[in-house]
Amino acid sequence: MRNPTRRNRNIGTERQGHGQDNRMKIPSHWDGDRWFYEKVENAVAVERNIGDLGLTFLVQPVTAGFVHACTIDDICYLLSLAPKGDIAGVDLVILRQPTRKQQGLRPVWGRLAYYAETGRHSGRAIFLEAQQPGVPFRWPRSLTPEGLAEFDRLRADGHEIEEDRRAFNIKPTMESIRATQLYRTLPHELGHHVDYLTNVSEPAQDESDYDRLRELYFSRPQSEREAFAHRYADELTAQLRKKGAVPFVRQDDPEAMERDGLDPGWFNPV
Question: 119, 194, 213, 228: which has the fewest Cβ within 10 Å?
């Protein structure tokens, strides 16, 4: 006799609902209207000036195995090399510790928040996330043109790459993480900020209606916004390399970190 359960290919799969009640997901928001990455607990605030522009750094303690690959002085020096008008309007740089769930499901090098609220601090924020040197992540063999371009960038940053039958295994080192975040991610997120200023904020001539400006910005195709940020980062870094300004030696001063209330161990892998 026919056994229908043996012929139903959906049994035990997502189509039938299997696993949908316990799938690991990162909540999109927390505490009202704020995004999950705005939850920056126990952060140490450090004030810096880049020329005559003030900037607040928020640094979260890292958990075991994680490290902030870029120091505050690294970031300040790189930003000081960018055109002054390009960094005007950036209020915060946040060195954030992701949860292990976030790192496992949605790992990122960094991001730009056009407006973030983190306790008593708020404004436009560039996030750089703590990473795990020596812990590999997998990259699919089937790549879109955008994925292939990013894969080539990771190789150029110095990440160790091994290939198996199903995927590429990318093993980041402290040096390669710093190269990715300092010379690519930071300029890329700054490029998003410049894109917003150039194509939305300045043409509008009225920045009071933030919600309308944000809607105008995000109504543009994501591919267009990403292309602008990649182009900005590539051009800025190429100019700095031509001048010999980058790469530069890591700005690592444990005594200065301690004076700022930071633990030097957050910036150095154990």
Answer: 119
